[in-house]
Amino acid sequence: MAERLHGQRPTLEDVARRAGVSKSTVSRVINGEPKVRAAVAERIRGAVAELGYVPNQAARKLVTRHNNAVAVVVTEPQNRLFVDPYFDCHLRGIRQELVRHGAQPVLLFIEEQDDYPRVCDFLGGGHVDGALLFSLLADDPLPDMVEQMGLPAVFGGRPLLGSGHRSDVYTYVDADNRGGAREAVRYLVSLGRRRIATITGPLDQAAAIDRLDGYRDVLPATPPRLLAQGDFTVRGGADAMALLLDQAPDLDAVFVASDLMASGALRTLRERGRTVPDDVAVVGFDDLTPIAEVTEPPLTTVHQDIEEMGRLMARMLCHRTSHPPLRGDDAPSLASVVTPTRLVIRDSA
Amino acid sequence: MAERLHGQRPTLEDVARRAGVSKSTVSRVINGEPKVRAAVAERIRGAVAELGYVPNQAARKLVTRHNNAVAVVVTEPQNRLFVDPYFDCHLRGIRQELVRHGAQPVLLFIEEQDDYPRVCDFLGGGHVDGALLFSLLADDPLPDMVEQMGLPAVFGGRPLLGSGHRSDVYTYVDADNRGGAREAVRYLVSLGRRRIATITGPLDQAAAIDRLDGYRDVLPATPPRLLAQGDFTVRGGADAMALLLDQAPDLDAVFVASDLMASGALRTLRERGRTVPDDVAVVGFDDLTPIAEVTEPPLTTVHQDIEEMGRLMARMLCHRTSHPPLRGDDAPSLASVVTPTRLVIRDSA
DNA sequence: TTGAAAGCGCTAACAG
DNA sequence: CTGTTAGCGCTTTCAA
What we know:
homodimer; alpha/beta; 434 Repressor (Amino-terminal Domain); Rossmann fold; 6-stranded parallel β-sheet; 43% helix; elongated; disordered N terminus; DNA-binding; DNA-binding transcription factor activity (chains A, B); HTH_LacI (chains A, B); LacI family transcriptional regulator (chains A, B); transcription regulation (chains A, B); transcription cis-regulatory region binding (chains A, B)
């Protein structure tokens, strides 16, 4: 069916000619404007179908200034990403909300330094109306770049900025990492545990820092031997646990900054012959049910509603993109949101 | 720094005015054309930086007809995708090759029926120069749509088409699933196994069908009780294995159509007290090392170079997009490629 | 209700 | 080496 008219994809003009009307009229029916005679509209729709016409978004965007697509940018080594159910939840919420608003989510990865300029050109190039940015590292250039381009953006997790920046100029959605960590550690204390270690995430990420801060809020004078840094992977958690056991064989509890790492820690504990929770109590963070429920023993962990956070981010972004920027002073940017966490007690502590 | 000139993002015109030259000259330095006096070029670069100018790709695309972005479309429930290291490898290869060609990969998901029209509009809207399409299901409308839009595309895995379609009109890259399966089953036979069962993938996917066909090539007269269908997940493999054990307690080998399923099957076998490979020999498919090497026992499986396949797909697509479509007859479309597989023998068979 | 015309921001000849 | 001039395909006043 799709006749190639001039060897190219059909344009509005082609459809118009075919239907014997003007471009304007075709444009009107394409965009669902009501003031077109039914018969004409029908004829046009026929022509569209016959020619297999699809509007050229680039051209449309040039005039309308938007194109119903939003970027989801993830700064993360891919191999980590695709193995971490955390993103899956986040993305599910985002997708759900975005499509509800008629926006197409497009996923972009940043894996190496070289990716920044290309991704920035893409973001600034008007391919998308806004961006949802994730897992920013310390001194990540993205927040500044996005801000400078004036592209509406919402961050997943508090952006960690270099000195001189205030994170309150950015809109973000984050879980109450610090409060959640505090609750977890307090719970361990309430259990009568005395030597409570912690396995942190990579400390160039806000979530890792905040969770450690929460731990320190409760246990300000922790000796270094009770601290080990992991990398939010199972393996990293296992290694950190081994290190901890070497440094402090007498520890009786450990607060692990993610479920993935906690499952690794559990494995090490088992290998070293420690029983959980009797010898060592373990509390994780995230409450990724596919993990937390199947560990041995099932994991006591800090719950956060990741999917809802994704939905929230998407909703906030859509709010900012659907309205043309207010003139005069800055538009009243939606405030950032910190969502509550809660401790879910299973068997590991 | 980024002064808002007319309250909008700066345009080429703004930069030109600022640098005291014409738009053309600015355009030249933006696009790295050499014939510009160094001093002028420098002045322009200064203006670009001061204004925070980023070219509007929509406008550029309108005239150049391309925009250095290609879509990677995945038709898969997200939760499956994000847990399957298979895609990780594929994507790694694709990304690598695409950025080498200066193209930005953008990932699109199709999860439900409603996603098709939106994704098609995106693909047809000229946001991307081409598309890499994955894990198509039987009767997936995507191949036809993409073909009809004239968007260059390369498929990952042989597309499964409804009747009346010949898959040879599409360019695809696929592993030799049938040959690999044949080799696996022959190996099992050579081991002296007599009752060789198989766990298939979902039979609406080409890879699953082809692997089953390979099994049947060697064992044409398999009784139904030796067949069970899985869904390419760990859980599915475990369930299928349980079913098989019920239906055919005397089986002495099983060819499992994916490593993920094989790891599930191994678990079931262990739970049922069968030793591997003594009681039951197991061969998987994919050779996802993060899985195959850590199963207990390590998995004998059919290896395919997934990352290289990704690279190949990207290379083929870039080849097709960088040249403007030849006039007259169809451009000599690159032939599809079937990459070889090889059996990797570890301990499970 | 429909059409004509003016641009959106950019590149690509073609002059100079 | 640089500026001028046309559009790319679409939406959007403004008239008819």
